[in-house]
Amino acid sequence: MPSKKLDFKTGQYVVYPTQGVGKLVRTEEQVIGNQKIKMLVIEFEKSRMTLRVPLERAEVSGLRPLISSKKMDEAIASAKGKAGTKRMIWARRAAQYEENINSGDPMKLAEVVRDLQRRTATDTMPFSARRLYLRALERMAQEFAVLHKIEVEEASEKIEDILGIPKEIDLNAIEEDEDEIPEDE
């Protein structure tokens, strides 16, 4: 089955699997060896990185346009499900989560978010699990933010609100007021 030709335009946002959302700023030709190669130049604002991807290799590299809002809603809905039970050691699960994050696939990102999210405000997460969760959430939020024309932080909060992920308890915000203690009658 022939694959469809990807059509990229300057100024559009694209997803590069291992980096997340970037903006296609221009195309340029470079001479490598004795060959002229057309390159897509993508800038990633957050990491201040510029990436050049040969146009011929764009599809193979996993470069893709943003998904539709409908597909994003489907990914978020799948993250609402019950965590997948995986009976394997943490190192293997972590490697699988890492692979899912680097795939750039919104459904796989949603799977990581679903499996690693906190269920209550007092749940604690090991550092490595929290790091993976935050990376997956950020990748989803980057695409969500561009689709909805909002900031990434706001997108992360909206996704967590949609998923019903409890906010962390700010112990500094809890003040004990001794006047509120009920007296025995």
Q: What is the ordering of alpha helices and beta strands?
A: EEEEHEHHHHH
Q: Provide the structure class.
A: alpha+beta
CATH class (first level) name of the largest domain: Mainly Alpha
Beta-strand fraction estimate: 15-25%
Q: CATH topology of the largest domain, anyone? A: Methane Monooxygenase Hydroxylase, Chain G, domain 1
Distance between the termini: 81 Å
Whole-number tally of structural domains: 2
Spans of at least 5 consecutive residues whose pLDDT stays below 50 are 173-185
Computed over alpha carbons, the radius of gyration is 21 Å
Tell me the strand order in the biggest sheet: 4-3-2-1-5
Specify the biggest β-sheet: 5 strands, antiparallel
Write the layout of secondary structure elements.
Layout: E1 13-16, E2 20-32, E3 35-44, E4 49-54, H1 58-61, E5 64-65, H2 69-79, H3 90-103, H4 106-116, H5 127-148, H6 152-163
Helix pairs in contact: 2-4, 3-4, 3-5, 4-5, 5-6
Structure characterization notes:
This protein has 185 residues and is of the alpha+beta class. It has 2 domains: 13-65, Thrombin, subunit H, CATH 2.40.10.170; 69-163, Up-down Bundle (Methane Monooxygenase Hydroxylase, Chain G, domain 1), CATH 1.20.58.1290. 40% of the residues lie in helices and 19% in strands. It has a 5-stranded antiparallel β-sheet with strand order 4-3-2-1-5. Strand 3 (35-44) and strand 4 form a beta hairpin.
